Amino acid sequence: MLKGYVPPYNATVVQKLLDQGALLMGKTNLDEFAMGSGSTDGVFGPVKNPWSYSKQYREKRKQNPHSESGDSDWLITGGSSGGSAAAVSAFTCYAALGSDTGGSTRNPAAHCGLVGFKPSYGLVSRHGLIPLVNSMDVPGILTRYVDDAAIVLGVLAGHDPKDSTTVPINKPLVLSSLEDVSKLCIGIPKEYLVPELSSEIQCLWSRAADLFESEGAKVIEVSLPHTSYSIVCYHVLCTSEVASNMARFDGLQYGHRCDIDVSTEAMYAATRREGFNDVVRGRILSGNFFLLKENYENYFVKAQKVRRLIANDFVNAFNSGVDVLLTPTTLSEAVPYLEFIKEDNRTRSAQDDIFTQAVNMAGLPAVNIPIALSNQGLPIGLQFIGRAFCDQQLLTVAKWFEKQVQFPVIQLQELVDNCSAILENEKLASVSLKQ
Amino acid sequence: MAAPMLRWGCRGRRWALACVDGGSCHRRGAPTGSTSNRIRGQSSVAQQPLHTAQKPRKGEHKWAAVVGLEIHAQISSNSKLFSGSQVRFSAPPNSLVSFFDASLPGTLPVLNRRCVEAAVMTGLALNCHINKKSLFDRKHYFYADLPAGYQITQHRLPIAVNGSLTYGISAGKECGQVIPKMVRVKQIQLEQDSGKSLHDDLRSQTLIDLNRAGVGLLEVVLEPDLSCGEEAATAVRELQLILQALGTSQANMAEGQLRVDANISVHHPGEPLGVRTEVKNLNSIRFLAKAIDYEIQRQISELENGGEILNETRSFHEKLGCTVSMRDKEAKQDYRFMPEPNLPPLLLYDATSLPTGADPQQVINIDQIRETLPELPSVTRERLVQQYGMLPEHSFTLLNEVGLLEFFQNVMKETRAEPKKVTSWVLNIFLGYLKQENLAVSESPVTPSALAELLDLLDSRTISSSAAKQVFEELWKREGKTPGQIVSEKQLELMQDRGALEQFCYSVMKDHPQVVMDVKKGNPRAINKLIGLVRKATLNRADPAVIKEILEKQLSS
């Protein structure tokens, strides 16, 4: 739909970075219109996880006699901001911006072993962020270390007159070092222990809790009782807003326009059919259904009410003395692309967003911190969730944790050395591109 | 039948019922004649008792029309409602379009403070309750002049509700009485204007100009308390005056700054309301009245002929003077209203709720706005009546004509003449000349100073009333002469020499003894003839009143 579209202005977050002397290395790939959890549904093709080519992963695969040879088993980055995650993970750049509406920054961060930070809603300007769900979107920050994320956040945070949903901050963001966690209270939401969670991640989650406890922090179980409704609620609200936000794409002012000129209606219909992929079109149709007069009360308004309940769950948990919540970020480590595409986008999104999207509904800050490598040599991360506008405190805790776990650096030397492998990869990549 | 024109003075009748009844009266024809014919014709067929065939059923032929209006007024502001692009009339196409107006992805709305103030001012002027919290919504539909595919409006909770608009219907020219009427204001809401689309059927293309897209509008929704074209037109005119007095909108219908849609239905009093139609594309007050009255008659005819009214949108065809059905396919549009997520609720404050230490740049204080409201037309009219002793009807005329009040006040400033005289001259003679040539006050060849000078001459009895009218006619010719110059050129000065005048009277009486006889006999008209003769003799340079006085004196002696 935006083929050939060059925006005539910079997003506030981009401009702020440029003003501070940042160098724009490039624009990264993603799921079309940020809809997806694999970064596989973009017009430029799927994004490959650099960890597919890491020494850590390759060595483990050699040990497995059933593994296929060649590159056909490369892994997804997660999504939807997979391109940004891949770029940072492969040392292409210092940091990358993504978006986070249901976990789109934290999810790929987990799969690529990165710090994926989602700021509080209202802290960072959305002017220039192509909207998916206006009431949940935030620009996300992807870096290799928490300090880097804090620096970037320090530049980006603050009221923007061009975005009426931002709030002023009273003091600048400075990350201090946390030495003593004994005054900290960590909450573990019991509803997040779901059967689909991989045993590896469950184990790591448990060990992380133990770590805090052993260092003197208080670790308690909390309940977020409406968690099970959040997926459905999210879908209703997300598709409704999508239907609204996508209404502007008609090919009239900018972007792709089809050849049909029989009538305006026909032109709109054909342009939108051609310009949007199945995922986007599916969400638009659903959203319009929920917004119909006869359905509005039963779906949209109901979902808003449930959203309020979910947000209140978090408020109650924090009010009970919890400073930070600790949860998994994803159900499992990154899966191979061929396996991922066996299920459709909608199913995948519903599954993979499970730990991350409630945070967006409540507008809270959250961050993925890589903890350890899996048995397959792939990154696993855990999520920390903080109080609204307590981003600084959240990052402080995250930094302490990062220091404790000493997550290994990705080893890509082998990839650089084996140029022929790259060429082979490219051939297979073009075959696997969907048409 | 011709729709009633918008004019003051409907011969003392209450217009509201008159317009509708008049119509049905015409259609029925003479009652007794037709029914007797019917009875004669039917007598061979069936035995029908005379009285049942003759008497129409109670209330069957009485129709009442119900008219509701939705008025869109463009807010007079420097920039648009949600973006910083300029608001200007007749700029080159697509030259006043910001990224947000063009719906480029990633752009967000930012509320314009002036527009909110305009809404509050208008709400206060219409006696509305100002909602301290109001919300914005998206109204979705696809159209080429709506770039975002939705309009940002206030559907759930508008900024002002439950007000009233008072207007006046004239009760007759002689008594100068004005009957006050009131229509309830349901709500006032802020919303975006759309762009303009021009259909080029020749090349089968549509040209889109987005200059207007995003301009702030005040939508004023009136309850269906109106019952005919004149009421609607008068109410809209009053609203126009209010908006112009407040400065919140220039409300010029010809320039599209004020647009009116009318919802019209008819029913028998006492029965439920009928199906309504919506009439759009009304771009002048005159057409508004015409269209509404036409539509009322059309619906009555349709129903009386056994037809039914479709809930549809119609537009008014100016040349044919009728309404025609529009896009009936789109009759049922589901706008899929959704809260606008990028705009938090709009919070307004008053003196009691204003947070301490609040930055005045950041908040709007309703009480402060209320205190600084300019004089409303109804107050102005009242003041004119009190100050100048004019009839209420005159005050309406003065305000209704663009620029007339200012003209009047300028004349008043410069003349010694009595206000009643000035009023009469301005409203009758001056306005009459303007109307004859279809000119606006601003195009008048006679300036306030010129008229003031003329009235001074009249006031000081330098010239007679008829001479003054002559002078005025000369002034209208735009020859650049002042009243003084015209008077001396045409020798219109009244004779000041009483002695000479007495001489004239005496000689006229001498020359016309028969007429003098008639006067002495008691014929009241005879003296006028004498006066006329003297006037002629003096080349109209004598004051008729003085002539009469002298003649009477001479006759009695």
UniProtKB/TrEMBL annotation, chain B:
Q: Which top EC class is named for this enzyme in its record?
A: ligase
- Known EC number(s)? 6.3.5.-
Q: Which reaction does it catalyse?
A: L-aspartyl-tRNA(Asn) + L-glutamine + ATP + H2O = L-asparaginyl-tRNA(Asn) + L-glutamate + ADP + phosphate + 2 H(+); L-glutamyl-tRNA(Gln) + L-glutamine + ATP + H2O = L-glutaminyl-tRNA(Gln) + L-glutamate + ADP + phosphate + H(+)
GO cellular component entries: glutamyl-tRNA(Gln) amidotransferase complex; mitochondrion
- What InterPro entries does this protein's entry cite? Asn/Gln-tRNA_amidoTrfase_suB/E, Asn/Gln-tRNA_Trfase_suB/E_cat, Asn/Gln_amidotransferase, Asn/Gln_tRNA_amidoTrase-B-like, GatB, GatB_Yqey_C_2, Gln-tRNA_amidoTrfase_suB_CS, Gln_synth/guanido_kin_cat_dom
Q: Please state every residue range assigned to the domain named Asn/Gln amidotransferase.
A: 406-555
One GO BP annotation is:
mitochondrial translation
Determine if Transit peptide is one of this entry's keywords.
Answer: yes
**What keywords are assigned to this protein?**
ATP-binding, Ligase, Mitochondrion, Nucleotide-binding, Protein biosynthesis, Transit peptide
What GO annotations for molecular function exist for this entry? asparaginyl-tRNA synthase (glutamine-hydrolyzing) activity; ATP binding; glutaminyl-tRNA synthase (glutamine-hydrolyzing) activity
Q: Where is it located?
A: Mitochondrion
Work out whether the entry's keyword set contains Magnesium: no
Protein family (similarity comment)? Belongs to the GatB/GatE family. GatB subfamily.
Entry-linked HAMAP family: GatB
Subunit structure and binding partners: Subunit of the heterotrimeric GatCAB amidotransferase (AdT) complex, composed of A (QRSL1), B (GATB) and C (GATC) subunits.
Q: What does this protein do?
A: Allows the formation of correctly charged Gln-tRNA(Gln) through the transamidation of misacylated Glu-tRNA(Gln) in the mitochondria. The reaction takes place in the presence of glutamine and ATP through an activated gamma-phospho-Glu-tRNA(Gln).
Record protein name field: Glutamyl-tRNA(Gln) amidotransferase subunit B, mitochondrial
Q: Which gene encodes it?
A: GATB
